[in-house]
Amino acid sequence: MMRIMFLLCFWLQVYAQDYPEWIKEGVKVISNFGESRFKSGYGVIINEGLVLTHAQNVSYHEKEIIYPKDIILYVSEARDEPIACLMHTKILAFDKNMGLAILEPTKFTDIYCNDLPEQNFRSLHYKTRFLDILTKPLQRDLIDKDVLDYFLEQEWLEFAKEQMTFLELKAMQEPQIKKLLGMPLFINDEFYGILSKGEEEGGKTHAKILTQKDILNFICNLKKTSIYENYPQIQDYCVANY
After folding, report:
1. What are the distances in angstroms from CA 110 to CA 70, 74, 79, 122, 145?
2. Residue 202 φ/ψ, nearest 5 degrees
3. Are 51 and 93 in contact (CB under 8 A)?
4. Taking the domains of the chain in order of start, what are their residue ranges?
5. CA 202/CA 36 separation, integer angstroms
6. Residues 94, 52: contact at Cβ < 8 Å?
7. 24-134, CATH topology level
8. Using only C-alpha atoms, what is the Rg of the chain?
9. pTM of the model
10. CA–centroid distance for 226 within its chain
11. What is the pLDDT of residues 27-82, one digit of tens each?
């Protein structure tokens, strides 16, 4: 009996390491601009059901900024289960220069992208399943050997935990950076920030991280607007702390 309990505990520990809870808070973002134009990227569900992503995942930059006609989010609800539709969203806040956008739900769907009634189990469930962004940021300067955890879909079947060092992140090439924009990054299961990009002299693109502190500054700089009138938890936090 003791051996069975030991094996069970060991299996649960391995499962938690391979499929941490934060994977369930991550989303794949698909933006539809019409005329067969799509963009994809990543994001994370935060307090009060809002979603944080990179601004370039939900915009085209031509002569003027073009916004999507629809934004659909996909999630991984359990290990070894296919990625599933979650909801339609729209842009609540957008900062091109900062490279951040906040999305709010407009309609939840079933796993096959069929719209659900206004009151549904998924909307209730996702009020309790989120990354708490309103916490003290992890104060840490990264060194090359630091390991960053993130998730990635496996041939469109499921999200799985992946890892890279900070050195590997800095060496990423532009195609890979674009593919992972908005990806939430963790250190020992603690949220550190999201993957973004910057430009060096000559226009060369390099990967960078928008830290939780950067994100909170972006979120709370909007406290004097009416953006959070339906999101009192965020508004109250920002008024009290910023």
Report:
1. 17, 11, 18, 8, 41
2. 95, -5
3. no
4. 24-134
5. 32
6. no
7. Thrombin, subunit H (2.40.10)
8. 18
9. 0.89
10. 24
11. 999 999 998 999 999 999 999 999 999 999 999 987 889 999 999 999 988 777 78
